[in-house]
Amino acid sequence: MGDKSGIRLLANTIAHQWWGSEVSPKTLNDAWITNGMSRYAELMYLEDESGKSAMRSAIQDVSAGALAYDTVPLSTAGRLNPFSPQFQSMTLEKGAMIFHMLRWEVGDKAFLAIMKAR
Which of 9, 28, 53, 84 could join 78 in a cystine, given CB atoms 3.0 to 4.6 angstroms apart? Predict the structure, then answer.
């Protein structure tokens, strides 16, 4: 097996191409959908490639990042500088956690069906 250190970055970048082009946010307030799903798709790839324990570990890291700047509602993230750590934390990490919670609520089968239905 070769070096896989950049595989998560690649998975995230590919997901951003899909979610940024096909499901673009109307405003920066909706960037959590694009950024969050791109991060979550990266984690789903990690789960598929390395197993559920790798996913659990990654979710712990993402959840810590999601709480790092919990000062404004997610729906107002567009007021922040899009290159700020706060915006990135809220849209990438918190957005991914929202999708993870949705998956937990509806179950794997329904979540995957939702994702395929666009």
Answer: 28
Residue 46: per-residue pLDDT: 92
d(CA 45, CA 97): 15
For the chain, residues with pLDDT lower than 70 are: 1-5, 118
Is 78 in contact with 31 (CB distance < 8 Å)? yes
CA dist 32 and 90 (Å) reads 7
Measured distance CA(66)–CA(27) in Å, rounded: 20
The interaxial angle of helices 95-106 and 108-117, nearest 10 deg, is 120
Where do we find the tokens 């191409």? 17
Give me the sign of the Cα torsion angle 41, 43, 47, 48. Answer: positive
Other CB atoms closer than 10 Å to residue 42's CB: what's the count? 24
What pLDDT is attached to residue 116? 83
